[in-house]
Write a structure and sequence with these properties.
The protein has 417 residues and is of the alpha/beta class. The chain has helices spanning 12-23, 49-52, 64-69, 130-140, 153-164, 185-198, 245-249, 294-309, 372-384, 390-394, 397-410, and strands at 5-8, 30-33, 72-75, 80-84, 89-92, 97-99, 102-105, 109-111, 124-125, 145-149, 168-173, 201-204, 208-214, 217-223, 228-230, 233-236, 240-242, 258-259, 271-273, 278-281, 288-289, 320-325, 328-334, 341-347, 352-359, 362-369.
Length: 417
């Protein structure tokens, strides 16, 4: 059998790449390799309903019949030990090898670790996989007090979920506010207020110096100020590290991830990278980014398939993200770093509002809480390259829709091949 495409990693990016290859007409062999012994599954629910509901089942990305029906050779429980780029060969841990004509690395990321006394104890966990979620669910049933280290999306989603399930939750964040890398201060303050109203205790500007034990299990977290926080479970959610080791050892260029061009090709053209592990020069900001989102992973995977079949165009997807924290659906579109002004639409007191971020007269992005219509309209505006004036935003959604329609009427229709 001739060598075809091998995809390493069966998360959202890897599965989408396999599906898109077939959708794009690729008829060669496709091998999808996963180091987990699970049918590929949706990850976002793991921090929410799955860890709260003992009867919840993982949600497969595709049914089992999809892989056989699409002639995708799915291989679970396989760990790749190394890449021989010159021989176009993957060496499998424990023996064996896989040849490839093209290689897609969808290796994702792993939780960033902390090193201080007690992190090796039973009851200290992170969330990245289905196995992690199962462990958190099991430990939660045995825990009254839970300490969460990290005030990012994952930590806060888990905090809201476990608090709703009746646990006593303390969130410890090292910097002076929540969601520091992710959203504007007004959103962060709103999220904090809603969580505290639920009964979640939040400590910002605070770190943990050590963990206490009872037997071999964690019993408390000791803060940098000496406060003792009872904990039968400690969840570490302080961000992730891209899985670049395979690529780096193979001689692929690395820069805060596996460096790729606008067609998702690495410094070795036969090797493509997509998803959390890929870093690139973003078309919208002109800066180098590595985006951790399902949307980015699947959009890059689609383009990777098009690159392989020879129908590639430069990557130009509008980035968008979401998070469900308690009664707040946060939706973000665009990249708002470098903004110098903003317009607020809606009412914070009603838990329904959006923030439109500008750099000068250019709309950079929109952050919404429980206003999905604003989010969807924002995706259309940024996709069209339309920046409404702040006074148009302030007039409300209907005026924005009319302004977008008028703008689109003036844009020449792109020629189609």
């Amino acid at each position: 059998m001739k060598n075809g495409v091998v995809i390493v990693g069966a998360g959202h990016a890897g599965v989408q790449a396999a599906a898109s290859l077939r959708e794009e007409g690729y008829d060669g062999p496709v091998v999808l390799v996963s180091d987990e012994n699970e049918l590929p599954y949706h990850k976002p629910p793991l921090s929410k309903t799955f860890i709260k509901d003992g009867d919840a089942k993982p949600q497969p990305l595709r049914g089992e019949a999809f892989y056989s029906g699409s002639s995708i050779d799915f291989r679970p429980g396989v760990r790749i030990a190394s890449i021989d780029a010159s021989a176009r060969r993957l060496d499998i841990a424990g023996g064996g090898s896989l040849g490839f004509a093209r290689l897609i690395l969808a290796t994702g990321s792993r939780p960033r670790l902390l090193k201080f006394e007690g992190t090796e104890l039973s009851g200290v966990v992170s969330l990245r996989s289905l196995a992690d979620a199962r462990l958190i669910r099991e430990l939660s049933a045995q825990s009254e007090d839970v300490v969460i280290l990290g005030g990012g999306f994952i930590g806060l989603e888990i905090a809201a979920t476990l608090r709703a399930a009746g646990r006593k939750i303390t969130v410890v964040e090292a910097v002076d506010r929540l969601l520091g890398r992710a959203v504007a201060p007004v959103i962060a303050a709103h999220v904090r207020q809603r969580l505290e109203a639920m009964g979640v205790r939040i400590l910002t500007g605070t770190t943990i110096s050590r963990l206490e034990r009872e037997g071999g299990r964690v019993s408390a977290a000791i803060t940098s100020t000496g406060e003792r926080l009872p904990a039968q479970m400690v969840i570490i959610g302080i961000g992730v590290v891209p899985n670049v080791e395979l690529a780096e050892a193979a001689g692929v260029a690395i820069a805060n991830g596996i460096r790729v061009d606008q067609h998702m090709q690495s410094s070795i053209p036969e090797i493509i990278a997509v998803g959390d592990a890929a870093s690139y020069r973003h078309w919208f900001t002109g800066g180098d980014v590595r985006l951790e989102s399902v949307q980015n992973a699947t959009d890059q995977a689609r383009l990777a398939a098009r690159t392989i079949v020879g129908h590639a165009e430069p990557f130009s997807a509008v980035p968008w993200f979401w998070s469900d924290i308690g009664d707040m659906k946060l939706q973000m579109v665009g990249l708002t770093q470098g903004g110098d002004s903003h317009v607020v639409l809606g009412d914070l007191a009603e838990n329904r509002f959006s923030i439109y971020h500008y750099a000068g007269s250019r709309l950079l992005g929109i952050e919404s809480v429980n206003r999905p219509g604003d989010h969807m309209l924002g995706r259309k505006m940024l996709g069209a390259g339309f920046s409404p004036r702040p006074e148009t935003v302030a007039a409300g959604p209907e005026g924005l829709k009319a302004a977008l329609a008028a703008f689109q009427d003036t844009v020449p229709v792109k020629a189609t091949a």
